[in-house]
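Render Ribosome-binding ATPase YchF in 3D.
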Amino acid sequence: MKLGIVGLPNVGKSTLFNSLTKAGAESANYPFCTIDPNVGVVAVPDERLKLLGDLYHSKKVTPAVIEFVDIAGLVKGASKGEGLGNQFLSNIREVDAIVHVVRCFEDSNVVHVDGNVNPLRDIETINLELIFSDLEILERRIAKVAKGARMDKDQAKELAMLERVKERLEDGKLAIGFETEDEDEEEYFKNLNLLTAKPVIYAANVGEEDLANDGADNAGVQAVREYAKETGSEVFAICAQIEEEISELDDEERQMFLDDLGLKESGLEKLIRASYHLLGLMSFLTSGEDETRAWTIKQGTKAPQAAGKIHTDFERGFIKAEVVNYKDLLENGSLAAAREKGLVRMEGKEYVVQDGDVILFRFNV
Ligand code: GDP
């Protein structure tokens, strides 16, 4: 699962990306790896893991992870090939969701590409480039389908839908929120893989003074919140600079720092968790002496497919799953004690795995 960090130059993308990858490297045992300088693997904060790991005296604790990609280079005119232009846009096409960083902090030492701080204008600049790029894709697809549409019912149906999406984009709206009329349309729409159909989190990069009350006094942040509401997106007030400082501290210092700022957790932790949910993901857990681990699945995944995340043999030979909620397990102190109370269930092929299930799979090899 990949999230792309986008935004205009100088809004704090790299600062945020660096703090994400640094925090990921330090706060978890996960062997943080840099795939390339612009891609970082980040652990999803999950306090359940430590507790379970302690219970089982696990040698290793492995969190779920998501990938962040720092996508630099979007400027006005990118869809026309300005800056890194099309290369940038194709990088975005590969991500599952977007973190759009918007500058809401004032700092005369940091130049703004358009002269002054204006979050809504910035968002619209970027979104317009994404819309242009999507329109190009639509036009290409329309040209292709239009030929067959006279003879072929399916293509005629697709064409009608494409025209509706095109109209929407030409109105300056994002593709996300477009209502498909049936499953065929949904399929056509998905296959387009439009940039503006991807879920977005707006990361409002605020100054330190705006952190404690979550940007409530910052008119720019408020404007972004209004905008996001219309498009069904989420907004987080974050201070990239502070996050970078926090990411350099050890656990104890970090806690003190956060307490001083009146915060429960770092902005990054909030952001990572929100991204995870935005992608429709959740974790089930496995625990034993060797390892306690969180596994990422999509919400609605059934037991055999969840088993397949661990090993394809587990899915093929799936017999049943022994399931206990992590809270029940922790409260009772052992699997045996939880079992005695009837809190451990045997579930079959149709069981839909729940967030926080601790599972032991039974399977044939
Ligand atoms: P990018 O071009 O979007 O990747 O922006 P950078 O992360 O390189 O940040 C541009 C400049 O803004 C750098 O000098 C950062 O130190 C500064 N900066 C980033 N975040 C903040 C912030 O939250 N507050 C302030 N005052 N400066 C910031």
